[in-house]
Amino acid sequence: MEPLYQQTHKQVHEIQSRMGRLETADKQSVQIVENEIQASIDQIFSRLERLEILSSKEPPNKRQNAKLRVDQLKYDVQHLQTALRNFQHRRHAREQQERQREELLSRTFTTNGTQKKILDIANMLGLSNTVMRLIEKRAFQDKYFMIGTQGSCQTAHFGGRSAGSS
User: Fold this and answer.
1) Measured between alpha carbons, how far is 126 from 122 in angstroms, rounded to an integer?
2) Per-residue pLDDT tens over the stretch 123-140
3) Predicted local confidence at residue 155, as pLDDT
4) If 0-12 CB within 10 Å is exposed, 13-18 middle and 19+ buried, where does residue 83 land?
5) What is the average pLDDT score of the chain?
6) Model confidence at 164, in pLDDT bands (50, 70, 90)?
7) Is 33 within 8 Å of 17 (Cβ atoms)?
8) Which residue(s) pair with 162 in the sheet?
9) How many CB atoms lie within 10 A of CB 116?
10) Can you tell me the distance from the alpha carbon of 43 to that of 29, in angstroms, rounded to the nearest whole number?
């Protein structure tokens, strides 16, 4: 039992060091490292099953200590499994945010004739040229506000008026 325990314990420490390097890995190698870590964790779980069987066959005076050591290894491996899942979740969320950001940056914002409709209504109501110029200026400011805050994804658009502008 002792050699298998030592091998498994050593492999747990190797996975812990790989988890530390996972944060600094480049995008191409992250998936490969994740797969290697998951394969190692799966291998450790199979070794832990074998260790549980062997610990139950230990002499009674050593059995409790052996089971405690195996349980501690099992806890460590479960912690590593959770840490790997958390990392994968954060990576997927970060990639989705990057895709959404790129989509927003590539999108062109147009007024779709809204400005022309507003000016037609203003003209029909008999508003002065001054009021119509204020409307055009406001439309330009709203467009500038939308483009200026596009990278931070903080813009909310409500009924032709952007949040935060007056």
Assistant:
1) 6
2) 777 777 777 778 778 777
3) 45
4) middle
5) 79
6) very low
7) no
8) 157
9) 10
10) 21
Burial class (CB in 10 A: 0-12, 13-18, 19+), 91: middle
Beta strands in 14-112 (DSSP E): none
Q: Residues, the chain, total? A: 166
79-111 tens-digit pLDDT:
999 999 999 899 899 889 999 988 888 877 666
pTM attached to this predicted model: 0.58
**Half-sphere exposure of 7 toward its Cβ, with a 13 Å CA cutoff?**
13
DSSP state of 157: E
The rounded Cα 27 to chain-centroid distance in angstroms is: 13
| Residue 160, C-beta contacts closer than 8 angstroms, at least 6 positions apart | 114, 142
CA–CA dist 55, 75 (Å, integer) = 16
* Nearest-angstrom CA–CA distance, 44 and 65: 20
